[in-house]
Amino acid sequence: MMTDILFIIQARMGSERLPGKVLKPIGGYTILDMIVKRVRQSAYYDQSRDNLIIATSDNKTDDILSAHCLSKHYRVHRGSEQRVLDRFAQVIEQVKPAIAVRLTGDNPFVDPSLLDLLIKSHSDQHADYTYIGGTPLGIGGEAVNANLLTELSAAKTLADKYQEHVTLLIRESPEKYRLLFPEPPQELRAPHLRLTVDTEEDYRLACELYAKAGARPDIPAKELIHLLNSDPELRAINQMIRQKEAD
């Protein structure tokens, strides 16, 4: 059921490589606004309930982010900056969804059709955790049974890395959890591309790609992939960037 799904966008102003990136503009939108707009296109988004929450930190540096969310009438929750798992667990305990879809605030081109496939696969296969790889970095999310995150959060002996990287312990425990990794549709298969924004180069690419795509906030990821594959100069802008471990 749609009521069992909760989209949680993890976002904060602090970033080692590109501070304040979630509120940086792409066209007439901030990166966060673009993510929200695209997630709301998912078949599993319920406008009457607004089953989407921004989970940010209670650090003073995120006051501006929280104020932005409130000005846009986004639901927002503030919790520990470092203990991100606890932040997610607090949201889940309030809303009580069956499935949490984890998204991050640096992916302006998240694809609603891929989110729909993710959620449907997760539900149909009765998985504990689902992730679709093989696509450009930044167009997807993770689906996880919400009760697992609250259970893990309650374990007080959890190592810091498992608190910071919300689903890492689940991903590292295939003997304990049912992990599902569906294949992406052919038109979204492009693991060589980066559509996340983690550096100045990523941001420049996102802005130029958005302009080249006609400044349409709802442009499907398959069109962005086609544009990048047919434009080597554009693609080269962030090709040298390496993703940090555990991202």
Key features of this structure:
Spore Coat Polysaccharide Biosynthesis Protein SpsA, Chain A; 247 residues; alpha/beta; seven-stranded mixed β-sheet; 9 strands
Task: Characterise this structure.
By secondary structure, the protein is α/β, with parallel strands linked by helices. 36% of the residues lie in helices and 15% in strands. The chain contains ten helices and nine strands. The protein has a seven-stranded mixed beta sheet, sandwiched between helices. A two-stranded antiparallel ribbon has the order 2-3. Helix 3 (84-95) packs across helix 5 (146-154). It starts with a strand and ends in an 11-residue tail after the last helix.
Q: How far from one another are the termini?
A: 30 Å
Amount of beta strand: 5-15%
Give the topology string: H per helix, E per strand.
EEEHEHEHEHEEHHHEHHH
Can you tell me the CATH architecture? Alpha-Beta Complex
Number of domains: 1
* Unreliable segments of 5+ consecutive residues: none
Derived from helix and strand composition plus strand pairing, the structural class reads: alpha/beta
CATH fold-level topology = Spore Coat Polysaccharide Biosynthesis Protein SpsA, Chain A
General shape: globular
What characterizes the major β-sheet? 7 strands, mixed
What is the level 1 CATH name?
Answer: Alpha Beta
Gyration radius, in Å: 17 Å
Mean pLDDT: 93
Spatial strand order of the main sheet: 5-4-1-6-8-7-9
Corresponding CATH superfamily? Spore Coat Polysaccharide Biosynthesis Protein SpsA, Chain A
Percent helix, as a range, is 25-40%
**How many alpha or pi helices?**
10
Q: Tally of extended strands?
A: 9
